[in-house]
Amino acid sequence: MRSTTAKTVLPFHDPDALVLPRELASFLKTTEAVLAQSRFRGVGIPYVRYGRRILYRIRDIRDYLDANTVPTRGGD
Question: Any residues with CB less than 8 A from the CB of 47 and at least 6 apart, and which?
């Protein structure tokens, strides 16, 4: 039985590395179904289709996360 508390570590040191949807879903604490819906709607993180397989490039994940980071307001 697979532990649901396992921590997924993506290879961020290699921008050209490819990861599977289950790895990305675990990292983002979402489901593969949510990622599939994003692909279907044409939104979300860009992906690579290799035959029937879906892969996500680390560079695209980082770019997406950077573009969708909301800055906090500084201040006293």
Answer: 39, 54, 55, 56, 57, 60
Report the interhelical angle of 32-41 vs 21-28 (nearest 10°): 110
**Helix boundaries (H) for 1-76:** 21-28, 32-41, 58-67
pTM of the model: 0.83
Q: Give percent of the chain above pLDDT 70.
A: 89
Domain-embedded: residue 11 = no
Q: How many domains does the chain have?
A: 1
Tokens of 44: 């979300």
Band of the pLDDT at 2, cuts 50, 70, 90?
Answer: low
Would residue 22 count as lying in a domain? yes
In a domain, 32, yes or no: yes
- DSSP class of residue 44 equals S
Question: How much is the pLDDT for 73?
Answer: 87
